[in-house]
Amino acid sequence: MAQGNVTLTEFTGKLYQSVVQADGEIYHRYTQDGINFSDWILTGNVPESGGISISTIVHNGQLYQAVLVALSGKIYTRSSTDAITWGTWEQFGVAQGHVAMISYQGSLYQAVIQSDGEVYTRVVGSSAGWQQGGMAEGNVALTVFNNKLYQSVVQEDEDVYLRYCEITTCDVNSGWSSWYKGEKLNKNAYLLWTQ
Q1: Where is pLDDT greater, at 134 or 140?
Q2: Residue ranges of the alpha helices (H) in 75-165?
Q3: Are 180 and 162 in contact, with CB atoms under 8 Å apart?
Q4: Could you name the domain of life of the organism this protein comes from (predicted)?
Q5: CA pair distance 112, 75, nearest whole angstrom
Q6: For residue range 80-117, what is the model confidence (pLDDT) as tens digits?
Q7: Rounded Cα distance, 120 and 111, in Å
């Protein structure tokens, strides 16, 4: 039985679907045609149990998995060059919710919301560590558009905020724009969304 979420990632010409089961075992399966999938394949275990979300992304020819354990808040990351043999888990930081990941300008970025309600971003493998970047709730979204790295969150006022970075390394806050505030949904749209 799966828990948390499911991910889809294209890697080496295959579409991989990954899940974490309630016992902490990670499984994936793949398809080459988008219809016929392999059997589920056990790829290993999360180092601890307690409610887990999983994120996957391809960066520099490797498939990365990041998991966030809800009970402890610990974040673990590992990678594979072939989706068969996996490196050891690296534990780096604590958070809540989900680990957002994106490959940008040759670096792998992770963003989370930590228990203090702040957005934190890091470059995997960088000595800079997590960089604080403003208040938020829920999860962080990351994407690349027009050669800029975008980050979006919902803040305490329940409005959507967006900021971007357009330099080679965005692992320090000086590289990011200010947060741009979106417009709140009108009351009717909000009521329809929540019903």
Answers
A1: 140
A2: none
A3: yes
A4: Bacteria
A5: 9
A6: 999 999 999 999 888 887 899 999 989 999 999 888 88
A7: 6
